[in-house]
Design goal:
InterPro entries: F420-G6PD/mer, Luciferase-like_dom, Luciferase-like_sf. The chain is of the alpha/beta class. It contains 11 helices and 10 strands. Helix content is 45%, strand content 19%.
Length: 266
């Protein structure tokens, strides 16, 4: 199982982000779509300055980007990073898409299937880019319909808020020899209960309908319940559990003691 690091780009300079990526000593660095930076461009800028590390988006939004425009950007980043780019895409959430972009969020699964059907062959077309290969394409998917689309049209899925049991029971059986990348809150701490309580108060992502359904399918009520917390030994054991159930890449969003957590991850 590869280990990646989720880098929060909001309000930060490129030099800060590059320094964090270079110091992390992980296999991959991922950025997501937030205010400010364009995630595809930012991944390329980081990858061009930090050698020997995979860079990717987890995720960039499909609704506001034409497939051809996204394919061109992704292939350009793939060229700039010596084929080290992973394109993670997803439809986002109704509450974020409609007010921000003025685009209807109606039938997101149908939108995603149509989008990937167009995007996939465009990523294969590397005309004019010598030495460039198609970037890996991952789809943010949680429910059975979206996981089916990931199995049909992508190289795998990008998960969030998923326990090891959830991966084993809900995700792995629906994918066939595909990548399972999981973004998880990871923290080395001597007081996991206190950190988990802080996370439960801090993270309101579980209020979004897509995430509520995914948590409910796992018998969970809070995203904090999916966090990987404990001392070095406990965190390492939990990471091995995820590898055992089929996770091919765990992307850590660091909480708790950052220095100890990064040391354990590396």
């Amino acid at each position: 199982m590869r280990i990646g690091l989720h880098v929060n780009s909001a309000g930060r300079t490129l030099d800060e982000l590059v320094a964090e990526a270079a110091a992390a000593k992980v296999d991959a660095v991922y950025v997501n779509e937030t205010v400010g930076w364009d995630p595809v461009l930012l991944a390329g800028l980081i990858g061009a300055r930090v050698p020997n590390v995979q860079v990717g988006t987890a995720v960039t939004l499909t609704y506001p980007r034409h497939p051809q425009a996204l394919a061109s950007a992704a292939l350009s980043v793939q060229a700039a990073t010596d084929n080290r780019f992973v394109l993670g895409v997803g439809p986002g959430h109704k509450v974020g898409i409609e007010p921000r972009f003025g685009i209807s969020y109606d039938k997101p699964a149908a939108h995603v299937r149509d989008y990937l059907t167009q995007l996939r062959p465009m990523l294969d077309d590397t005309t004019g880019l010598p030495g460039v290969t198609r970037p890996k394409l991952l789809l943010s998917a949680l429910g059975p319909v979206m996981l089916g689309i990931a199995d049909d049209l992508a190289d795998g899925t990008l998960l969030v808020w998923t326990s090891a049991e959830g991966v084993a029971e809900l995700v792995a059986p629906r994918l066939h020899d595909k990548e399972i990348a999981l973004t998880a809150l990871v923290g080395v701490t001597d007081d996991p209960d206190a950190v988990r309580a802080q996370l439960a108060a801090q993270f309101q992502a579980g209020n979004l309908p897509n995430y509520q359904r995914h948590l409910a399918r796992q018998g969970l009520s809070s995203v904090a319940e999916t966090a990987i917390l404990g001392d070095e030994k406990a965190v390492a054991q939990e990471l091995r559990r995820f590898a055992d159930v089929g996770v091919t890449e765990l992307v850590a969003s660091v909480v708790g003691d950052r220095e100890r957590t990064l040391a354990t991850l590396s």
